[in-house]
């Protein structure tokens, strides 16, 4: 839930603490798999899980609660770190956390129970439930559920994380925030993760049930299933029992930005525990909540959502070749992952009270590593190696992903980085000459060469699985920043406005900085032409117009869409 021009925290090198013990336990589990082809015993798995947590989390910092189950058997239940740094309160496995976008799975199922009851149909237009919503007659319920509606996600609107995010809003007020913003694309034409779509899912639940969306989930799902610690994050009772949330900037944990929990709405406003999430996984995936045909539609991506494996509030994929389902969550102060491995009936719930975890703490990666170990097929630990910057230079270049996207490899400060079109630049960690690891600890790039030893492409192994996707190397030169005369930069300086959002463009060094009002800091941009500037750390571009004469506007391009800010005339 980050807004354009808000810098992401740079990934750090993978830590090396206790790596020998981790490697030993991983080797023991792998040996057991090879010799007996059976999953580990609970005691052995618990030692492995405890070591992972000990390696990744300090006892005096924000931490994590974890539950891993195989069927009805608890393989590991534990916690590490602090629930409240100021009061020195340690985390416990049963603590209540904000779960962020894991909420979407509950909201999707809530709406699907209305489908089962005959009150909603997946191919119904949104206008059946919200007659006044612009373009609602062209948007289906299914498109809301699988992020293909094209509606602008409100968390992509500049300035949303400033003052407005702290206000308590009704569903109607939430809809007013984005209803008149132009869509990103026509309904069904593309896929883009969309928090507005799930606010609308909540609104449809309310229209079809006659109850607030969260009360409907309480009565229909949480109470019948005995999920006593799951509920709406804006309820006073839920607030009283939550752990504190933090953000780690520059290595120091600080209290997370305060927000009104009315605003995440059905896209992210629930709180829960690892124990309740395990109850949920069992009920949902064992057929206790939805009709079989409805559940099958929920976990089967269709249309443009097939490109990313997204069902209805559920991400599809695999762990070590075994089909897996789940959802991740991120919200100020918190980070979460709920995973279900089909067949072996494995549940992994990971809840963290830090919105910016380090590479070995990221919830998706931790859940994947635990799930693989529970299968008896653990991921090996990968050790960083030193590679001379001169050697790294041979891999620099632009690699073609598809017709619209490339990945650019560039050495920055002696380290390899990757920058995909419209995404933020990421640091990579070398684990061998020609092999680079992403910060998730699984996804990696392996460079490809021809018979003469010339670099011809890269092969990306997403989350460390499969045969990888090849991106051939192009002959295009690396885009290089240019230095512009100061008078050219001064032509662009000023205040620009889009509705209630305001962006200030200033000179910074040889380039510019962009600062959206209310955000903690400006983002640097370097010149690629007299009117185009890039900010790789957030994956954004500034596009000034016109090219000659007085500048009238600047386009902020990020994540495939462009928002236009009009220049505010300087006071006379």
Automatic annotation (TrEMBL):
Q: Which domain of life is it from?
A: Bacteria
Quote one Gene Ontology molecular function term.
hydrolase activity
Q: Which positions carry the signal peptide feature in this UniProt record?
A: 1-36
Q: Does the keyword Signal apply?
A: yes
Note one Pfam family from the annotation.
Beta-lactamase
Q: Report if keyword Hydrolase is assigned.
A: yes
Q: Which InterPro entries match?
A: AmpC-like, Beta-lactam-related, Beta-lactam/transpept-like
Keywords annotated in UniProt = Hydrolase, Signal
Q: Where is the Beta-lactamase-related domain?
A: 60-372
Region Disordered, annotated ranges: 463-482
Please state what the protein is called. Serine hydrolase
Annotated source species: Arenimonas terrae
């Amino acid at each position: 839930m980050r807004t354009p021009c808000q810098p992401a925290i740079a990934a750090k090198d993978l830590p090396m603490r206790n790596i020998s013990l981790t490697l030993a336990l991983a080797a023991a589990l792998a040996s057991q798999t090879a010799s007996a082809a059976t999953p580990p015993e609970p005691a052995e798995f618990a030692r492995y899980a405890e070591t992972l947590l000990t390696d990744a989390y300090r006892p005096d910092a924000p931490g994590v609660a974890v539950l891993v189950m195989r069927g009805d058997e608890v393989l590991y239940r534990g916690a590490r770190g602090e629930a409240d740094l100021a009061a020195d309160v340690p985390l416990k496995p049963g603590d209540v956390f904000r779960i962020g976008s894991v909420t979407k799975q509950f909201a999707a199922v809530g709406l699907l129970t209305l489908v089962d009851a005959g009150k909603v149909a997946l191919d119904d237009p949104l206008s059946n439930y919200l007659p006044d919503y612009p373009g609602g007659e062209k948007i289906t319920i299914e498109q809301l559920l699988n992020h293909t509606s094209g509606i602008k996600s409100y968390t992509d609107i500049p300035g949303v994380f400033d003052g407005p995010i702290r206000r308590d809003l009704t569903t109607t007020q939430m809809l007013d925030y984005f209803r008149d913003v132009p869509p990103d694309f026509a309904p069904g034409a593309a896929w883009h993760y969309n928090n507005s779509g799930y606010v609308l899912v909540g609104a449809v639940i309310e229209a079809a049930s006659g109850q607030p969306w969260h009360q409907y989930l309480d009565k229909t799902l949480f109470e019948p299933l005995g999920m006593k610690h799951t509920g709406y994050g804006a309820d006073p009772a839920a607030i009283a029992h939550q752990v504190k949330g933090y953000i780690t900037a520059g290595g120091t944990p600080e209290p997370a930005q305060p927000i009104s929990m009315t605003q995440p709405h059905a896209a992210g406003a629930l709180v829960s525990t690892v124990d309740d999430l395990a109850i949920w996984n069992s009920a949902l995936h064992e057929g206790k909540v939805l009709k079989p045909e409805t559940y099958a539609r929920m976990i089967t991506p269709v249309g443009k959502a097939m490109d990313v494996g997204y069902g209805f509030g559920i991400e599809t994929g695999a762990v070590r070749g075994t089909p897996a389902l789940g959802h991740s969550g991120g919200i100020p102060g918190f980070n979460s992952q709920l995973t279900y491995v089909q067949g072996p009936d494995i549940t992994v719930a990971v809840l963290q009270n830090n919105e910016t975890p380090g590479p070995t703490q990221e919830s998706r990666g931790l859940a994947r590593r635990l799930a693989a170990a529970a299968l008896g097929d653990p991921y090996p630990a990968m050790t960083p190696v030193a590679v001379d910057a001169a050697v790294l230079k041979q891999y620099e270049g632009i690699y073609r992903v598809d017709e619209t996207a490339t990945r650019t490899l560039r050495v920055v400060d002696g380290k390899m980085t990757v920058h995909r079109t419209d995404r933020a630049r990421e640091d990579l960690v070398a684990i061998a000459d020609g092999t680079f690891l992403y910060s998730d600890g699984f996804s990696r790039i392996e460079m490809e060469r021809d018979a003469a030893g010339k670099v011809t492409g890269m092969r990306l192994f997403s989350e460390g699985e499969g045969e990888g996707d090849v991106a051939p190397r192009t002959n295009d030169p690396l885009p290089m920043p240019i230095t512009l005369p100061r008078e050219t930069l001064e032509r662009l300086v000023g205040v620009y406005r889009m509705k209630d959002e305001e962006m200030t463009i200033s000179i910074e060094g040889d380039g510019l900085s962009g600062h959206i009002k209310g955000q903690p800091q400006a983002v640097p941009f370097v010149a690629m032409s007299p009117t185009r500037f890039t900010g790789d750390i957030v994956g954004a571009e500034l596009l000034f117009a016109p090219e000659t004469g007085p500048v009238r506007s600047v386009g902020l391009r990020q994540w495939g869409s462009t928002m236009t800010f009009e220049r505010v005339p300087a006071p006379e």
